[in-house]
Design brief:
10 helices
Length: about 200
């Protein structure tokens, strides 16, 4: 499980505390922007006690901008994020960019980072069936059901994979509980650390 920590501290803390309080252990890696680390170093350091910490880049960019960045800017963004984590004693192993590109993989290889590209996400990055615009139509139960259903269909089609959740999405901490219940009790998949996905 990849947790995409956005720039909102309050929502990120809610998600992390929900993970910590969940009835069973769910292996999660938290991915942070360098700008978030710079603003909240003690918080990220505290998280690193219980979670692997990965890097997302220096800060959020519009999705279409990220995939079209030139090599130099891609390198600057990733290395900046890495350096901010190193400043608080964390050496990231994983990179979860907003989108992958040829430059992303070149920089990641030079920095000895594994690129994480989740195949299922809440909210989905590439699938237009569920978007921020249409997700909030309807009642809570139907929204949550649609989100879980889409993730379930993707995992079933791909025979498993990596699921991500964006902490900046409204009510993501509530969605997380339902997602964990599904993954633990109904999915039939073994839940493992990211490292086992790359072994």
């Amino acid at each position: 499980m990849a947790i995409e920590v956005g720039m909102g501290r309050k929502s990120a803390e809610r998600v992390v505390e929900t993970i910590r309080a969940y009835k069973k252990h769910v292996p999660c890696t938290l991915f942070v922007y360098g700008d978030f680390v710079e603003q909240f170093p003690a918080l990220v350091k505290n998280w690193s006690v219980d979670f692997d910490i990965g890097v997302r880049g220096s800060g959020p960019q519009p999705t279409d901008v990220w995939e079209n960045l030139n090599y130099e800017y891609t390198q600057m963004s990733i290395v900046s994020g890495i350096l901010r984590l190193r400043n608080i004693g964390i050496q990231p192993v994983y990179l979860l960019p907003q989108r992958t590109s040829k430059n992303t993989f070149i920089v990641a290889k030079k920095q000895v980072l594994w690129v994480v590209d989740p195949n299922a996400a809440f909210l989905p990055k590439y699938d237009k069936q569920l978007t921020k615009e249409n997700y909030f139509r309807g009642d809570d139960d139907s929204r949550i059901h649609r989100g879980i259903s889409l993730i379930s269909n993707t995992l079933s089609h791909d025979n498993g994979g990596i699921v991500s959740l964006d902490t900046d999405v409204y009510e993501s901490y509530i969605m997380l509980v339902y997602l964990f219940d599904y993954l633990h009790d109904n999915s039939g998949y073994e839940l493992v650390q990211l490292q086992q996905c790359y072994d």
